[in-house]
Amino acid sequence: xxxxxxxxxxxxxxxxxxxxxxxxxxxxxxxxxxxxxxxxxxxxxxxxxxxxxxxxxxxxxxxxxxxxxxxxxxxxxxxxxxxxxxxxxxxxxxxxxxxxxxxxxxxxxxxxxxxxxxxxxxxxxxxxxxxxxxxxxxxxxxxxxxxxxxxxxxxxxxx
Length: 159
What we know:
The protein has four helices and no strands. It is mainly α. It has one domain (2-158).
């Protein structure tokens, strides 16, 4: 039990640091980085990247709530499945926004002959592909949580 308390404490510390880091990026860094872009691209890029960051912040909040359920030994309950569902939705929405943004940037690059370069589209393809992994993994984990919750309910009936 002590081992899990230390892990939960460390994970909460990392969640706090990650949340603060994303907050700084959202409020201070992102607007400054995009201020050099051409006006037609600045606002859509700001909106898309801000929404993706907000989705990640929602995931951080949900993980925090799940850690609270772990501490209370209530992880295998309907409440935890709802938090996992929110994580899945946030990851899927964030991925869709990121994929749409990457597709738009790639289209602009290939339509504009002066900036036609395969490097940025290939990098964006890798980012979009790798960012699909957490959402897909959480969908699998949601199924495992559903099974484990059912098994726990059956076990409680037997006992």
